[in-house]
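Translate structure to sequence.
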């Protein structure tokens, strides 16, 4: 072997490896850097297009059901988007998540359903996830789960209004809308009550309408029954009615205002057990989505929705299972989910597993609260007694608005893409390592062949053969450190 054919001395160590494979290292580094830069630009360009409006029960009780209603709001077109199903998961403060629950009941543009609250009281995070046409959306809502709840006794009656003119005579008159609701333009009933110092009495009352108009002619004479009550059909065409009531030497003036609602509702009975409650609704609205809710105090227990057809809607409401103690339920109907509670039609019901016990409990509770309870112990008498109570203005609480949840959705989406890019970067690094290792092996074989052709020994021992493991170690170390730095950079980005 001549001196001219001697292979040139190749620089050893890390510097030598860098010089010999600088093109490979440069290409790999540039590709990875371009990938990280492109991922950052892509993720930064994700903008919110929609958010979830989340309505729910203001109060969650451990282990019991609670209602949830969600709509996807388009922040650009200012409308709604379809949302077929929604997944809900409760997680405690340690991050431990419970089973996933699904909401899938359509209600116009909303999706709603009943959730079972966690069995342990405390602070929880409720995560809602759904797939929209524009991608995944999410909402995270802090929830306080209470250990127990009670509907409590009826609220005391409001302070009586001063009559327009002083009453005269021993008979006390009262005239009010049945169920506390007299909607304009719809048929309803007024309840005329008569009583003296001993309690309800039957009397023949002269009824003079001095103000107001009804599509149904109002009678001029009404006789109350043995329980001191009479029912008068009315269909208001004027918001205010003023009546002069006369019976013998007794005389009074009463004013009645119609309720700012456009619904009347009919249920089979004011005393209910468990199971379901059928409701028939009349409305001035010819069409649209009709909503009905059941409330127990501040707890929104269940909801149902059906379309209005020709101003009439029929739906069925799930009712809670009666407990050992009767309780008061408020059932309300409305058309617009954003309508305030005072503009909704509703009725008080008594929930009990024993009708007689439920009626007796309700009459005792109303008497204790200060309401003048009649002598009629029938279900119809219970309806009149319950109708004296103030109408609640309960409406589902807005737990999260679309602006807030849009930011949460974008953050979750960016975090998801961030994880995907990190995984892709790591897999590409593994692929590059394999390619470089293959290139090094191939290069070593080439050196061996060239050494043998140059007159080296049969085993091909030459300067390149002894460097393969060292070069591979240097290259993998450099690329691994570079890759780890890029991955760390991606993971430290906070949205």
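Result:
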């Amino acid at each position: 072997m001549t001196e001219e054919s001697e292979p040139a001395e190749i620089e050893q160590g890390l510097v030598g490896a860098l010089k010999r494979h600088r093109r490979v290292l440069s290409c790999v580094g540039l590709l990875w850097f371009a990938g990280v830069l492109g991922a950052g630009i892509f993720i930064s360009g994700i903008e919110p297009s929609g958010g979830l409006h989340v309505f729910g029960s203001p109060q969650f009780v451990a282990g019991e059901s609670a209602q949830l209603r969600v709509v996807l709001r388009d922040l650009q077109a200012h409308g709604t988007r379809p949302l077929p199903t929604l997944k809900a998961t409760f997680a405690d403060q340690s991050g431990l998540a419970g089973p996933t629950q699904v909401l899938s009941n359509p209600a116009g543009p909303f999706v709603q359903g009943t959730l079972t609250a966690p069995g342990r009281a405390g602070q929880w995070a409720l995560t809602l996830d759904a797939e929209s046409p524009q991608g995944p959306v999410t909402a995270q809502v802090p929830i306080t789960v209470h250990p127990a709840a009670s509907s409590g006794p009826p609220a005391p009656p409001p302070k009586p209004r001063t009559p327009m003119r002083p009453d005269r005579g021993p008979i006390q008159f009262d005239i009010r809308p049945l169920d506390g609701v007299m909607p304009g333009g719809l048929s309803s009933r007024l309840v005329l009550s008569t009583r003296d110092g001993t309690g309800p009495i039957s009397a023949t009352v002269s009824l003079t309408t001095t103000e107001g108009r009804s599509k149904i002619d109002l009678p001029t004479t009404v006789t109350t029954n043995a329980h001191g009550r009479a029912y008068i059909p009315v269909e208001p065409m004027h918001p205010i009615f003023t009546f002069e009531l006369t019976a013998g030497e007794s005389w009074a003036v009463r004013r009645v205002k119609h309720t700012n609602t456009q619904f009347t509702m009919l249920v089979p009975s004011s005393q209910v057990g468990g199971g379901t409650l059928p409701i028939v609704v009349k409305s001035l609205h010819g069409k649209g989505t009709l909503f009905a809710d059941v409330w127990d105090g501040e707890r929104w227990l269940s909801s149902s929705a059906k379309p209005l057809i020709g101003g009439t809607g029929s739906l069925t409401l799930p009712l809670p299972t009666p407990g050992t103690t009767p309780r008061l339920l408020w059932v309300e109907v409305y058309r617009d989910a954003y309508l305030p509670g005072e503009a909704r039609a509703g009725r008080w019901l008594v929930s009990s597993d024993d009708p007689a016990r439920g009626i007796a409990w309700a009459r005792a509770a109303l008497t204790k609260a200060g309401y003048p309870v009649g002598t009629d112990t029938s279900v119809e008498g219970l309806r009149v007694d319950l109708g004296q109570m103030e109408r609640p203005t309960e409406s589902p609480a807005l737990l999260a608005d679309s602006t807030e949840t849009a930011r949460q959705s974008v953050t979750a989406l960016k975090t998801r893409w961030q994880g995907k890019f990190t995984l892709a970067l790591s897999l590409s690094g593994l692929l590059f390592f394999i390619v470089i290792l293959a290139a090094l092996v191939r290069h070593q074989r080439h050196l061996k062949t060239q050494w043998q052709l140059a007159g080296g020994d049969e085993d091909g021992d030459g300067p390149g053969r002894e460097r393969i493991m060292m070069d591979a170690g240097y290259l993998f170390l450099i690329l691994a450190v570079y890759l780890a730095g890029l991955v760390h950079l991606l993971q430290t980005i906070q949205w």
